[in-house]
Task: inverse folding
């Protein structure tokens, strides 16, 4: 490890934002690349390697065009990690590798999955959406019909209600951030506003809920309040510009912005308007949170504010002293992320992170903050604040409120301890 | 967003409000034949709405369970690779809590709804309505909620009062207040 010259240390003090080496979030913006390079980047004692002037791939024509592109062969480790029951391989999850990704959009092949009985191979020509129940006109829509309706696009996260549930365990789980918090992904979804189709069928006054059902082998059903359906739900047909992937509901899924993933019914085939919820298994036995009193929270739909530092995080190793750019994700089901704060001293002091544009409601928000590490033991954490005033809680606060057996809706602050050797572990503080 | 809000007024507004409602979509939905409505709608509500004709007892359901469920859920609803259905040894305030149909599920109709739509995993939809009634009865019997020979049908199933019927707090409507 190389030491930085004294000049850098003086500058470090000048731009210090809080303890543990966190620097002003505007540092890079203010000073520009030249200043930064001259101060921190240009002092390496290493010599750049340039063994050959022309590498092998520059001495012959490359591969021809491809009909559908794939990641580089050097990126093969960037995959979803699968957890399923051996007796029922279609019942389980796969996680988005958040620790390998940057920006806010999740590539379609890496969007997290939760299936109850596998991914159906639906023929879009045969798929139908039936809207019935307390309506004036029960109607059936084909996919090609829906593709002719007015559409909207929005960037939006989907997070499983059970995401981050390892946080309830007594000991902090030691695994990559994606395999702890990666049942959350963010895409641009395009589809028909649900309100347009509801207007066409004509709602009867007694209707207060919509029961949505999927067309896969498990035919999961779940109840959604009608006011949310009118507010911002989409009948999604496209994901990041292309038609939905089979594992994300092809040819049609429900998008329920900011609410727990289970409501975003994939392979959507039926919407049943009703006066009361159906009390399906997934809104009674599951996706309810048992409290210490023995009572359980039900219909706790909104995914509360959450943030986590993805770089650096467990599985990375700091192999030099000097300047780092801390990077992480924040999101809230209530709306826009108003602020993210980062601490490098275990929460004694906090510095405000830079929020990368665009900052959108119910959407992943990327935050960054420059940080100078000189080999000291530190604990990095982040906390999110949303536009409604909701704040991401400390783990102890969350457990005091909810106990340890709620399983769903874990959104506590995540802490990474970094040793002098640059090794990173997950800790509870 | 404003178009949604104005739609909300149209749709939920007073029945007396005379609004020349103009479709904002192309209006391509097709009328649904009544037979399709009956066939497709398998939602079963706590009050029994949606339950089909048919019947079954726990005595009959034991055979259905052994043939279709035991592989994943274990003998008598416990000890398999899938979730525990019966045989709780302690309560919901234990550490860890013991969540089974008997200790946790608030409505008996949910067992019928879920079993008929999703189970058994390798062959969903393969049970007859009588078999679903019978295996529902068997699960209620294993949880000591009904007797071996009690018949479950469209009338008796919604009348079953589950032990944890009052165990839930409606977070959504509570947040509204």
Result:
């Amino acid at each position: 490890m190389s030491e930085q010259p004294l000049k850098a240390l003086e500058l470090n003090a000048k731009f210090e934002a809080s303890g543990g080496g966190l620097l002003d979030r505007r540092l890079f913006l203010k000073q520009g690349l030249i200043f930064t390079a001259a101060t921190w980047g240009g002092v390496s004692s290493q010599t750049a390697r340039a063994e050959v002037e022309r590498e092998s791939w520059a001495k012959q024509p490359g591969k021809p065009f491809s009909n559908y592109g794939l990641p580089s062969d050097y990126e093969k480790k960037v995959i979803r990690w699968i957890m399923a029951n051996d007796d029922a391989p279609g019942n389980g999850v796969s996680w988005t590798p958040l620790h390998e990704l940057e920006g806010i959009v999740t590539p379609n092949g890496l969007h997290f999955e939760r299936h109850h009985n596998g991914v159906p191979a639906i023929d879009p020509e045969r798929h139908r959406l039936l809207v019935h129940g307390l309506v004036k006109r029960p109607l059936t829509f084909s996919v090609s019909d829906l593709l002719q309706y007015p559409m909207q696009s929005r960037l939006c996260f989907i997070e499983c209600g059970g995401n981050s549930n390892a946080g309830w365990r007594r000991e902090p789980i030691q695994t990559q951030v994606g395999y702890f918090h990666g049942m959350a992904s963010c895409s641009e979804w395009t589809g028909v506003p649900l309100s347009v189709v509801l207007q066409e069928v004509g709602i009867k006054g007694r209707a207060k809920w919509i029961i949505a059902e999927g067309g896969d082998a498990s035919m999961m059903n779940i109840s959604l309040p009608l006011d949310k359906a009118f507010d911002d739900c989409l009948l999604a047909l496209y994901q990041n510009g292309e038609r939905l992937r089979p594992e994300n509901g092809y040819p049609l899924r429900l998008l329920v912005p900011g609410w727990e993933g289970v409501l975003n019914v994939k392979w959507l085939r039926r919407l049943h308007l009703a006066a009361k919820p159906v009390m399906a298994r997934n809104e009674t036995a599951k996706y309810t949170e048992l409290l210490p009193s023995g009572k359980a929270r039900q219909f706790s739909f909104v995914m509360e504010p959450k943030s986590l530092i993805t770089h650096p995080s467990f599985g990375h190793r700091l192999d030099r002293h000097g300047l780092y750019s801390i990077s992480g994700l924040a999101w809230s089901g209530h709306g826009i992320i108003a602020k993210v704060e980062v601490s490098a001293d275990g929460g004694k002091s906090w510095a405000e992170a830079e929020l990368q544009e665009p900052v959108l409601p119910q959407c992943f928000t990327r935050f960054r903050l420059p940080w100078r590490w000189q080999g000291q033991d530190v604990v990095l954490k982040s906390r999110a604040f949303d536009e409604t005033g909701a704040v991401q809680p400390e783990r102890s606060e969350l457990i005091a409120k909810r106990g340890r057996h709620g399983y769903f809706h874990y959104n506590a602050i995540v802490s990474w301890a970094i040793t002098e050797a640059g090794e990173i572990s997950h800790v509870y503080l | 967003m404003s178009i949604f809000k104005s739609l909300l007024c149209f749709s939920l507004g007073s029945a007396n409000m005379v609004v020349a409602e103009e479709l904002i979509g192309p209006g391509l939905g097709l009328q649904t034949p009544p037979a399709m409505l009956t066939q497709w709608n398998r939602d079963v509500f706590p009050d029994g709405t949606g339950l089909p004709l048919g019947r079954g007892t726990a005595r009959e359901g034991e055979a259905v369970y052994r043939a279709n469920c035991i592989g994943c859920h274990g003998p008598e609803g416990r000890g398999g690779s899938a979730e525990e259905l019966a045989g709780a040894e302690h309560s919901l305030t234990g550490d860890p809590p013991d969540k089974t149909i008997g200790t946790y599920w608030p409505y008996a109709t949910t067992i019928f709804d879920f079993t008929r739509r999703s189970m058994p995993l390798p062959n969903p939809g393969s049970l007859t309505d009588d078999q679903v009634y019978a295996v529902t009865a068997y699960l209620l019997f294993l949880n000591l909620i009904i007797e071996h020979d009690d018949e479950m049908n469209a009338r008796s199933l919604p009348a079953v009062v589950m032990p944890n019927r009052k165990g839930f707090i409606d977070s959504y409507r509570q947040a509204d207040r």
Remarks:
- Helices of chain B lie at 2-12, 34-40, 58-68, 70-73, 109-118, 129-142, 171-176.
- Residues 129-142 of chain B form the longest helix (14 residues).
- Residues 1-19 of chain B have pLDDT under 50 and may be disordered.
